[in-house]
């Protein structure tokens, strides 16, 4: 009904409801209020069955828009914020992530730069359906993006959309689905090397005239499972050779703009007191004795006394050791016919974890030594054991059972002998 009860109609003599009107250009308009402020939606069609005027882009009818607004208001959703784009939502979400580590911020910027190049980032969040989200991730992989990149992008989009759900802007998170069933995991799993390969590589490094100076570092990484950033962050104060304990409560990182920073460990579980063997302690002792610090040791966020420095007096970071490992493996493969697989500082960590699991170490103990926050990550190492490991474990159990039976027989014979002796 219009003013003073007058009925308003459109050109097809259809009655216009309260709030509906027709503009001079023939476009339908609906006016509504939120918190006393007027808002408008527009459409070239009143009903869904109306024919779209020539040259106009497809759109929802006015009545459909009204229904959507009414549903949003009834559900206490915010109709205005539903119009923000995916890119704007991501920016809003990331603005809440204060105090993030430098490596985490770098990953956020990486995702933002990827999204800005995608048409999907300009879509309104209210229009994104679960199928749209899946098709977007599939498109990324089809365009050549690796699984880890797709996973990183989804790792930002899912919590961003969840924030919109929590803020009563959306009813459902379109990214709340298992990634495994949508894109193919084509990433190469970093696998541990065998004990024999480890021994061969350590022997090569030890005997090589050039790379022998890195032997202690390689040995330590293979026999402690430390993250390379944790190792790079070690200072003289962190190493207790008397009690054979290494204190790990920080890590050294270098940002993309070449700034050196000290960060907390990757997780709370990463902060730990690491017991070391006598051989590992000997390696640390050798490193400390051979250490050549710069004339003026550089302090980084209050830390000084690092193990290794470059020619500019800056402590070595993960990248330096990754390059050195690459060169050592390359040199090894130039000499020997049987090739050595790729070995990185992180492969050393995987190998240590695998060796400890194969040795029968308690999973909770191994979780502590590795600094894993989730026992599932540690247990995953045990699931990677193969046929040879299973056969060896069964043989060990069989030997233990045979030893127990032999012990029972011996004990039984001794008992009989004692009884006969008493009888006599």
Question: In terms of topology, how is this protein built?
Answer:
Elements: E1 20-22, E2 28-34, E3 37-43, H1 62-74, H2 86-94, H3 102-116, H4 130-142, H5 147-166, H6 195-207, H7 215-224, H8 228-233, E4 239-240, E5 245-248, E6 251-254, E7 260-263, E8 272-275, H9 278-290, H10 318-335, H11 345-358, H12 363-370, H13 375-383, H14 387-423
Antiparallel strand pairs: 1-2, 2-3, 4-5, 5-8, 6-7
Commentary on this structure:
- About 45% of the residues lie in helices and about 10% in strands.
- The chain is built from 14 helices and eight strands.
- It has a three-stranded antiparallel beta sheet. It has a three-stranded antiparallel beta sheet with strand order 4-5-8, with no helix packed on it.
- α3 (about 100-115) packs across α5, α6 runs antiparallel to α7 (about 215-225) and α7 crosses α11 (about 345-360).
- The longest helix has about 35 residues, at about 385-424.
- It is elongated, with a radius of gyration of 33 Å.
- The mean pLDDT is about 85.
Please, what is the average pLDDT? 87
Strand content: 5-15%
Strand order of the largest sheet: 1-2-3
Structural class assignment: mainly alpha
């Amino acid at each position: 009904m219009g003013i003073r009860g007058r009925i308003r109609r459109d050109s097809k003599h259809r009655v216009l409801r309260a709030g509906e009107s027709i503009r001079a250009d023939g476009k339908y308009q609906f006016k509504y209020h939120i918190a006393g402020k007027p808002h408008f939606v527009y459409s070239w069609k009143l009903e869904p069955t109306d024919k779209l005027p020539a040259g106009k882009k497809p759109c929802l009818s006015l009545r459909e828009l009204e229904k959507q607004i009414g549903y949003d208001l009834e559900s206490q959703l915010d109709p205005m914020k539903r119009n923000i784009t995916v890119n704007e939502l991501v920016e809003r979400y990331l603005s809440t992530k204060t105090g993030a580590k430098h490596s985490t911020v770098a990953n956020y910027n990486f995702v933002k730069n990827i999204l800005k190049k995608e048409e999907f980032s300009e879509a309104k969040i209210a229009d994104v359906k679960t199928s749209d989200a899946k098709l977007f991730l599939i498109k990324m992989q089809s365009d050549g993006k690796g699984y880890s990149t797709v996973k990183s992008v989804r790792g930002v989009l899912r919590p961003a959309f969840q924030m919109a759900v929590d803020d009563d802007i959306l009813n459902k998170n379109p990214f709340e689905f298992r990634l495994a069933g949508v894109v193919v995991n084509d990433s190469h799993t970093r696998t541990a090397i065998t004990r024999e390969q480890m021994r061969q590589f350590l022997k090569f490094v030890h005997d090589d005239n050039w790379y022998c100076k890195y032997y202690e570092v390689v040995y330590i990484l293979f026999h402690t499972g430390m993250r390379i950033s944790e190792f790079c962050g070690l200072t003289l104060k962190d190493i207790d050779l008397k009690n054979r304990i290494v204190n790990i409560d920080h890590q050294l990182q270098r940002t993309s703009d070449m700034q050196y920073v000290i960060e907390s460990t990757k997780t709370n579980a990463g902060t730990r007191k690491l017991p070391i063997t006598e051989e590992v302690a000997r390696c640390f002792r050798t490193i400390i004795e051979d250490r050549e610090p710069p004339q003026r040791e550089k302090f980084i966020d209050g830390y000084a006394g690092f193990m290794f420095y470059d020619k500019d007096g800056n402590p070595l970071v993960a990248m330096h050791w990754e390059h050195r490992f690459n060169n050592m493996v390359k040199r090894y493969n130039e000499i020997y016919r049987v090739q050595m697989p790729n070995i990185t500082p992180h492969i050393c960590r995987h190998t240590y974890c695998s060796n400890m699991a194969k040795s029968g170490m308690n999973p909770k103990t191994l979780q502590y030594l590795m600094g894993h926050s989730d026992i599932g990550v540690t247990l995953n190492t045990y699931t990677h054991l193969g046929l040879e490991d299973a056969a060896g474990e069964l043989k060990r159990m069989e030997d233990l059972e045979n030893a127990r039976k032999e012990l029972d027989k011996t004990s039984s014979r001794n008992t009989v002998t004692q009884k006969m002796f008493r009888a006599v």
